[in-house]
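call fold(seq) -> tokens
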Amino acid sequence: QVQLVESGGGLVQAGGSLRLSCAASGRTSTIYAMGWFRQAPGKERTFVAAIRWSGVTTYYANFVKGRFTISRDNAKNTVYLQINSLTPEDTAVYYCAVRQSGMESYDYWGQGTQVTVSS
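ret:
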């Protein structure tokens, strides 16, 4: 199993920035990719960004529009999500997740970190 712990959320004014972190532990050798998802109040959870655990391949949702940057530190088993130019529409619980090698879906999820953007 892989355990994930997110941090870095909080209350921020519109236009501000946040960096979310997600630390993985456990069977990290099985990680193929890590992703960030978010769930706004009353809405379904949606994909935000993902990064392969090796190499430089990243993926972003269309709505990101250059404001989000995903990165990783393999030595720390940690993935980051830098969010700039925050808007109230970015208010959501942000979750990180792990996709294991040989798997098609994200099977391990963190508990989420709340991001609230005030106007």
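The chain has a mean pLDDT of 96.
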